[in-house]
Amino acid sequence: SAESAGTIVLPSGEEIAAAGQGTWYLGEDPGRREQEIAALRLGVDLGMTVLDTAEMYGDGAAEELVGEALRGRRDEVFLVSKVLPGHADRKGTVAACEGSLRRLGTDRLDLYLLHWRGRWPLEETLAGFTDLMEAGKIRYWGVSNLDVADMTELATLPGGDAVAVDQVLYNLSRRGIEWDLLPWCREAEVAVMAYSPIEQGRILGAEALGAVARALGATPAQVALAWVLEQGVSAIPRSGSPDHVRENRGAVDLRLPTEALEVLDAAFPPPTAATPLEML
Ligand code: NDP
After folding, report:
1. Domain assignment of residue 275, yes or no
2. Domains in the chain, number
3. Ligand 1 centroid to 198 CA: how many Å?
4. Is any atom of ligand 1 closer than 6 Å to the C-beta of 244?
5. Catalytic annotation present for 57
6. What is the ipTM, given to two decimal places?
7. Please, which residues have CB within 8 angstroms of residue 22's CB and are 6 or more apart in sequence?
8. What pTM value is reported for the model?
9. Which of 60, 104, 253, 256 could cross-link to 260 by cystine, CB 3.0-4.6 Å?
């Protein structure tokens, strides 16, 4: 692909790591806390420097965990969080971001996303994002779970074309965006971030993935992640286990030959018609 190895490009031209780390369900079990922090830190050490969290996750517990994991090394990462739709009017967006900054123990987010579209007009959220940009509290803003119609509407609002990212469900078993949203984002130069890139583990037992993995001397998770990265999309797998993080990092260096892509296409066919964007 045209991207330099291991990065994706934001509309500003800034490059960020294509393989990052998710945090949904992390920070909720005190018995796992130490291991989860070790996993996140190892990921950063290995270059998985995009950290994705949200005020929703564990009602702030994931952000607090990330804050602890990043103590003393905030500047090494590209930090992403999200505002809940119910908070996403102008003032609420600013207040929600300030809460996230407090839990994360930092003075700024690198990217702030609307988690999904709710009852507030997009103009309201956009005004909040603009206030936060001007205050230096966020460096970029974007959206999540927005399909083509919503993206088109957003792009027509004043300042709406500054949207940096659409974070959406994308993996071998959820290829719908290849029909319309992915081409739309490429054309508009909006970066796409794939969430649940291994379908929360559910696709890892698929026979085709196992066969490709064996042939390449890789693991099913590495093949699934390498496939997402191959599309020019970034991936934010979540793991609370250092061994899995090390394994996931290996996907960045894994190239999938044509024969492997053909096996995967046969087992996980691309879309043949428009389908509404799915979400988890
Ligand atoms: P993932 O597809 O990343 O799968 C996570 C699960 O897979 C965990 O149970 C993890 O367990 C396991 N796992 C990770 N690596 C491996 C491996 N190498 N081998 C075997 N199992 C593995 O699911 P998520 O839904 O968490 O998606 C990733 C991130 O995307 C989220 O954490 C969140 O940050 C974001 N997200 C955003 C959404 C949005 O609406 N914007 C919605 C959903 C997710 P273990 O800890 O044991 O490794």
Report:
1. no
2. 1
3. 7
4. yes
5. yes
6. 0.99
7. 52, 195, 236, 237, 238
8. 0.98
9. 256
